[in-house]
Amino acid sequence: MTEPTPGDTPREPLLAAAQVEDVVARTEELRAADFPDIPAALLAGVLVAERDNPEDRAAAARAVGRVIDAHLAATGASPNGKDTA
Predict the structure, then answer these.
(1) What pLDDT score does 7 carry?
(2) In which region does residue 25 sit, left (phi positive, over 0), alpha (psi from -120 to 50) or beta (all else)?
(3) In terms of Cα–Cα distance, which of 40, 60, 59, 70 is closest to 79?
(4) pLDDT at 42
(5) Distance CA 41, CA 81 (A)
(6) What is the pLDDT of residue 2?
(7) Which of 23, 28, 41, 46 has the fewest Cβ atoms within 10 angstroms?
(8) Alpha-carbon span 47 to 45, nearest angstrom
(9) Cβ contacts of residue 33 below 8 Å, gap of 6+?
(10) What is the pLDDT, as a whole number, of residue 82?
């Protein structure tokens, strides 16, 4: 029988589901109070991108970039702050 490699063993989540819900709820409270111009869906997408890539910062950054790019494309805005429409 072969020994499992580190990639073969399932990892415990960094946060329990209840803790993830607390982070999402508190982050949404802060967004609504301090940054109401940021859409809730954008924040949710960023949080999901981070949650799905806890071990790989580069992958998380790319995923967040895709979320932001999709939001900008959907709203007709460009990354430099000027409307593209």
Answers:
(1) 53
(2) alpha
(3) 70
(4) 95
(5) 19
(6) 47
(7) 41
(8) 5
(9) none
(10) 62
